[in-house]
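Below sits the subject:

***
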Amino acid sequence: MHVAAEEIRAGAAVLIDHHARGVWRPNDADRRLAGVLFRFLESGLPLGGEQIRSALAAADPAAPASAGLLALLRGTAGLLDDADAADGPAGRDAVDHVCLLLDALALARPEGR
């Protein structure tokens, strides 16, 4: 399934905004998934669709991440598989927004702590 870069960017922006305003409180699975991808980003290597799919596959099915985050990451993986779309201005902007979201989630404190 192909998701347009503009839709990915908009979805990431909404989640960033909802997280910042406290409308969406990421669960432990959201933070773990973001943490895995955040650690990969810290390595300095570019994020790719395969890294996202690997993180999604390793996630605990008994404690799933939020549906919105899962859909956003699946769409981002598809975008990153299309080098022409991912390397264009809209693609880079979308991936940057997703990375900002991953940073925020990975660094978020668990509820009540």
Residues 89-107 form the longest helix (19 residues).
